[in-house]
């Protein structure tokens, strides 16, 4: 992919074009559509502070989803606008329905093309994705390697599945939130994992689950 693809986008500087192309390269290498700003800075050989200026500018023009919040890993991903500018094929066919119970006749006609996660998940601007590690949420059908969609939040309601920053080396975990007074209990959806209990001042809500994408390989590996 060359910069010539983006020459019709006069707002982009040569460095900004490099940023988009480098992000596309990393995405293809890792198979992950949401990468850290640190990995991107290393790929470009830029200081993170210098890269941040480019990311903010590109995000403002609609080319990137860029999530940078205090005490949180900065995540960055290409938008549909950026993919179109880069000439990347977008969209997957939604063919119809398939029975999970009694057999039905499969509909082979393409009903629509899914180009955005918003087409199938209740996502909105500012939401972000993370890949799941561990088996604590198996009871919800969330397996290791699955992708969860999260909405940034600083508070949660009892029963919400939340991304929570817990004491330790900037450790975040996906758990069901329960608060009683000043005590917070983070529940797994797997009986093999004990609940985690903290004082409310020791934890910080980072986001609330809005949906997830299950991957077949993870389920085969778990013997399901």
UniProtKB/TrEMBL annotation:
Q: Which residues are in the Peptidase S24/S26A/S26B/S26C domain?
A: 93-210
Enzyme Commission designation: 3.4.21.88
* One Gene Ontology MF term: serine-type endopeptidase activity
* Transcription recorded as keyword: yes
**Superkingdom, taxonomy of origin:** Bacteria
Q: Which Pfam families match?
A: Peptidase_S24
Assigned keywords, A-Z: Autocatalytic cleavage, DNA damage, DNA repair, DNA replication, DNA-binding, Hydrolase, Repressor, SOS response, Transcription, Transcription regulation
Q: What class of enzyme is it?
A: hydrolase
- Identify its protein family: Belongs to the peptidase S24 family.
Q: What is this protein called?
A: Transcriptional repressor LexA
Protein's organism? Deinococcus antarcticus
Q: Report which gene this protein is encoded by.
A: lexA
């Amino acid at each position: 992919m060359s910069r010539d693809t983006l020459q019709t986008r006069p707002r982009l500087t040569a460095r900004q074009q490099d940023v988009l192309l480098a992000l596309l390269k990393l995405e293809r290498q890792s198979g992950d559509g949401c990468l850290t700003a640190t990995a991107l800075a290393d790929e470009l050989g830029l200081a993170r502070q210098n890269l941040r200026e480019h990311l903010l500018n590109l995000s403002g023009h609609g080319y990137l989803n860029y999530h940078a919040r205090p005490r949180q890993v900065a995540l960055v991903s290409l938008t549909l606008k950026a993919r179109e500018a880069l000439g990347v094929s977008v969209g997957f066919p939604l063919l119809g329905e398939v029975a999970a119970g009694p057999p039905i006749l499969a509909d082979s006609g393409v009903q629509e093309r899914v180009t955005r996660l918003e087409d199938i998940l209740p996502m909105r601007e500012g939401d972000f994705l993370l890949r799941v590690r561990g088996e604590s949420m198996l009871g919800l059908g969330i397996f290791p390697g699955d992708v969860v969609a999260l909405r940034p939040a600083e508070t949660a309601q009892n029963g919400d599945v939340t991304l929570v920053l817990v004491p330790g080396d900037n450790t975040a975990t996906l758990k069901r939130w329960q608060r009683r007074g000043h005590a917070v209990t983070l529940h797994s959806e797997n009986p093999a994992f004990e609940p985690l209990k903290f004082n409310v001042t020791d934890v910080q809500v980072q986001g609330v689950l809005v949906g997830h994408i299950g991957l077949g390989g993870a389920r085969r590996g778990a013997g399901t």
